[in-house]
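REQUEST FORM: STRUCTURE PREDICTION
Request ID: SP-0412
Submitted by: Lab K.M.
Chain count: 1
Length (residues): 712
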Amino acid sequence: MAKQDEKLHALAVKRFERIENKERNQRQLAVEDIKFAQTEDGQWDEGAKEKRKNRPRFTINRVAGAVDQLIGDQRQNRTNIKIRPVSGGATEDVAKTMTGLIRNIESNSKANNAYDTAFDEVVNGGFGGWRVITEFSDDDAFEQDIKIKPLNTATTSLWFDDAAMEYDKRDAVWAFVTVDMPTEEHKQRFKDSPMSEWSQEQYNTSPCQSWFKEDSVRVAEYWIKTEVTKNLALLSDGRVIDSDEEKSVMDELSAKGITVKKTRSVKSHKVEMYLLDGSGILEGPKAWAGKFIPLVPMYGRQSHIEGQTYTRGIVRFAKDPARIYNYETSSIVETNALTPKDPLWYTPAQVKGHEAKYRNFATQNSPFMPYNPDPKAPGAPQRGGAPAVQSASLQILQQTSMDLYHVTGMQPPSIGVNPELKSGKAIQAQEKQGDRGSFIFTDNLSKSIDYCGEILVDLIPRIYDTARQVRIMQQDGETENVEINTVNEEVIDEQTGKKVLVNDLSVGKYDVVTETGPAFATQRQESAAQILELISKSPRFEAVGLDLVAQDLPILERKELTKRIRKIMINEGTVDPTEEEKEELGLNQPQAPDPQQTAITDNIAMQTEDLISKIEERDAKTLQTKVDTQQATIEAYEKLIDTFKTQSEAGIPLTQTDHDIRVKQQDIIIEGQQALDEGPNREQTADLVNQAVAQEQQQEAALSTANNLTQL
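STATUS: Completed
RESULT:
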């Protein structure tokens, strides 16, 4: 083993020994608590067993009932992870996609098994946890998926940096996950382990004696954060990248006109994992993609006193009342077994001749018993009375019953034991009040799941880092496939020819919130009940909310019933159809014309056409009249030409009247042009205007000839 590895191994072993010594007592008590509540004979210690050897010894396990009650409440009220956009370009759409992706990760991982295992262990002993891993989606695939896996023995296998102060240990610099591996399996799996060459003397003198047992070897995952310096670059397009990771494509970005505006160095860390045993490092380092150590702890009730942390579940303080209850129950049974039965007292004269009946009196259920009167003992045979059970023992049993309620925090109202309450709402309110004593455990579960959500939010962009299609899940279990990473930009490194994905570290920041409540099916039923109550109070709610009731009913035909009701409501105009409903109902296709509406439209068209025809006919007549007038004017001008010629020959000039006639002719032409622009029958109007223009040209020619003659 290299010198550097020896130094790292020595530091790891030292850290583990320190945290194990510090928490050994609490961990041992947690193991005892789990055995006390969940094993068959765990409530009697060895000393009590020896004292009651060959004597009645009973276990009335009332502690397990309290544990199961709390676990049942937790499984009826699941905690859900929800992602919210915060800053840096984060959007609601991406947040919803991430929320759906996390639901799908939880579903594929059977994450509820991990959450339930941790909660069960915490309620019993106070310590629990689970882990986040990545693995290839298939044997022949290169894409990885994220999974959430349980740690079945977190009480003795999950250890965190003793300097970490946060509840979820997010500030821990190191952590361990240990397992006791059978020696034969260890030798076969780790053939290159330094321990395989050890002599017996090395075993005996090793500082890691606790790592070796007779038939097993402790193997540990050693997770560690190593400090590194990152160089960030602010690009001209506003993005922030790790310039060290993306330096191979900086020249390609420059070719696109993207330059570096600012750079700065920041202190950060990387997460790595080593696999080791007591003899040395077996594997590693293995780099982890995220910034968090992917181990999620969960704790029960914690108290920090004088530098020592005390952790417990609900069993710890219930052990003494349970032991008393079991001991007194066993003593009462033993006392009753040893106490003689209540005998029947009689004289020989009273039973003479009836000896057989009295001999079988204890086994025969006879409705009557004969006897002989005896003057020496007046009256019938009588019982003298059995020895009474000691009242002190009964009082102790009653007291220990109440003690168990108090120390577990499971008060009688919280388990439905209150005959004075008749109303369902009143019973629920009392149960909720009784649950306050155990709420700390469900609240701690929410805190741990919240931290798990942060690990996933940090990890998702690093694992799902290429354009790919993923399945997301809605709260009701419905799934859909979506494309992700369409915003990222792929750049080709011209030197290597490889595709490099430029990750924008400031695309968006998101945070995590958790919501705890009944399972979605339960919420659906409660929603349907509340809407039905509203409908019973007001018929208006029935008209607008019947589809909501249908979709929340706990029946197999819920979807089909909802579809039929919505179809009716869409046709009535009560609700607007979705795009899917438009396509399904054919509402986005051209509708067949209504015959009645078509008849009305055709009638209006006919009336409009007739009106246009009349207007055109009127306009044509008006224009024709104007043309006729112009023709008459031209003819008059032709006559004037002869007159002009005569006047010209006589030396007489043109008069003002002749000029006015010409102006009038131009007005007629302008009116005709307007009729051409505005009139409905453009072809007919154009012909008339053209005629007027021709007439004006003829008139101009006549006037020009007349003027020339006049000048001459």
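NOTES: DSSP finds 22 helices and 19 strands in the chain.
Reviewed by: T.R.
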